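The material for today's practical consists of a large collection of protein records. A record pairs a protein's sequence with a compact description of its fold. Instead of coordinates, the fold is spelled out as a row of discrete tokens. We will come back to this pairing of sequence and fold again and again. Here is such a record, shown just as it appears in the course material.
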Amino acid sequence: MTRGDKAPLVVTQGDPAGIGPELTLRAWLLRREADLPPFAVVADPAHLDALARALGWSVSIQAVDIAETSAVFDRALPVVALPQSVETRAGVPDAASAPATIASIETAVALIRAGGAAALVTNPIAKHLLYRAGFLHPGHTEFLASLAAEPDSDAPHPVMMLWSETMAVVPVTVHIPLQAVPAGLTTDLIVKTGRIVARDLRTRFGITDPRLALAGLNPHAGEGGALGHEDDAVIAPAVEILRREGIAAAGPYPADTLFHARARCRYDVALAMYHDQALIPIKTIAFDEAVNVTLGLPFVRTSPDHGTAFDIAGRGIARPDSLIAALRLAARLAASAS
């Protein structure tokens, strides 16, 4: 992305006690080396300045209106200031920071919807801290979907995709207990997910005829019903519906042979049936480079594929690779959508 007059990216602070703020500082320090597009972070400028000083990093912080981002990005980290101060210390999670965390997300989405920002990059949050402050959504993604809803309309159906240059995976069921997966997995849910994945791979990733490989739920994809009925009764019908709609879907395949290098050559994205079935292979293969992309939203949203890492926050040792990859991918997807 060239720097010109294009709208910048907007980054949320994430949990201020986690590694998100220092990763944002580090990404700005690496802006030229990593050839990053202009971005602004929605945060407390004083908190970021104090963190940079504590880490011994020379980062100039400048409070801006989002429209000023590109003009100051080369010389200072642009910050859209929150209305409240952040007192949290790195590595010391505190539910008192929840209002600022939520405000950062709300402000960033509002900037995108108003046309001031091209895409959203979110830093990691700690949901359990937000719950203590009365947060009513199951997670980050569901909150974004609610913010994206038009008046008098249902919220869009968000789909989590973990993407890297070497593989992409989508969990059909996400943050639910493993014992709840068989009941939560329906043909309708698989079809809805597959449609969204195929559409966004075409419109945002530029893949003309995306290939979807669906994993089985049970060992050996059910072994003809001997190891479970869901593969034949729930997943296979979904594959047929998607294929009748012109989507290149195949499966269900045994999950234990779906993620090696030769198998990955046969598809553009693998649809897994539950959270760990998707995240274990991509975090094994591309832990530092993987990006969380939310499909199905009316705007581009990416995020690093890791958590708050409170245990190492404030020490300056967290790697910014995934955030940098998220910024680059957000810019790429925003450009393809424009």
